[in-house]
User: What shape does this take?
Amino acid sequence: MTRPARARIDRSALRHNYALARQMHGGRALAVIKANAYGHGAVPCAHALQDLVDGFAVAFVGEAMALREAGITAPILVLEGAFDTDDWLQAAERRLWMVVHQSRQLEQLSQLPPHCRYEKLWLKIDSGMHRAGFAPEDVAPAWAQLHALQRTDEVVLMTHFARADEPTEPMTPAQLATFQTCTQGLAAPISVSNSAGVLAWPDARADWARPGIMLYGSHPIGASASAPLQPVMTLQSEVFAERWIAPGETVGYGGRFVAPRRTRVGLVAMGYADGYPRTVADGTPVAVDGHVTQLIGRVSMDMLTIDLTDHPHAGPGSTVELWGPQISVDTVAKSAGTIAYELLCNTKRVSFEYL
Ligand SMILES: Cc1ncc(COP(=O)(O)O)c(C=O)c1O
Assistant: This one.
C-alpha cells in the first residue's frame, strides 16, 4: 500500500477565489504565486489561472523563469526585483516586470546594455512598513531617475501594507495617506492592496491588486469578514492502526495527552515532516470520514494520533482531513500559534493530486 498522505489541490476553487478577488477589487489583479504558489504548486496553479488573470507575481527571478520554462506567457511581476545584473538581463529576455525598491537597483539598471527594456517597472515606496521601498522623501528623485534611464514605457507606483489584516488599526489609512502624499502629481497607475487590502480596505482598491493568501481560500482577517472563499488545498491521509487505552494512560511523546476515559486511538499517516505543525494543541479538530473529532497527543515526525472513541465506524482505511473544506487551515494555524501562510507553504513529502 502506498502511504496515503496527500494534498489535493482544487483548481476550480483557485479560479473561483481569483475571480472573487478581482471582482471585489474592481480592477486588475496579479495572482501572487510566489513560494510555489504558497505551497500549492506554482506551475499547475499558473496553468489553471492563466486564461483568467491579468498577470502573476512571484518573489524572485528564478521563480519567474521556472514559470516561463513551463510555458506561462502571462505577465509576471518580480516582487523583490533584481539581486544583480544577471537578474536584469534574464528579466529583459523573459519579459518580466520588475519591482525597483532601492537605489542599488537603479544603479544596476543604468549599467545594462541599451537593448534591456521592460514593459513595466514597479517603483516601490515604503509608506511605513519599513521593509522594502524608497522612503517618501526619496520617491520624487527615484521617479525622475527611473524615467531618465528610459528603460520602460510605464512605471507603476506600489506600496505594501503591514497591518491590513487588522481592520481597526490606524496604520493602513496612515500608510495610504503617506503613499498618496508622496506620489502626488506623479501620473502612474498604483498598486497597494494585498488580500487583506482587497477584503477590508475599499479605499485601497485602485488599479492593480496583488492578492495572495485569499486565492488559496484562507481569510487573512478571520471568519468575521465575509467573503465566500473556497479552500484550495485539502491535506488528508488515512487511519492505519488503532488501539484502546485505559483511563490515565498517555499517548505519544512526552505523554502530553492523558486519557480521561477508555479511549480508542487512531494512528494517522501524517506528521510534522509532512508539514502538519508539531505545535498544535490537543483538541485541534480533524475530520474522519466526514465527522469532526480531535487530535490527541503530540504530533510525531511521520504520524499523529486522533480520538476515535465516539466514531465506532471509523478505523484503519478511514480518510482523515487535516485541513480543507471541513477543517479550516486558519483554525489549525491558530492552534499551532502561526498563520495559514506558513502551514500551506510548508506542506512537503506528501503526494500532490490536482483536481
Ligand atoms: C509585495 C507583496 N504583495 C502582495 C503580497 C500578497 O499578500 P497576501 O498573501 O497577504 O495577499 C505579498 C505577500 O507577501 C507581498 O510581499
Observations:
- The pocket of pyridoxal-5'-phosphate is lined by residues 32, 79, 160, 194-196, 210-213, 220 (CB under 6 Å).
- Residues 11-25 form the longest helix (15 residues).
- The chain has a mean pLDDT of 95.
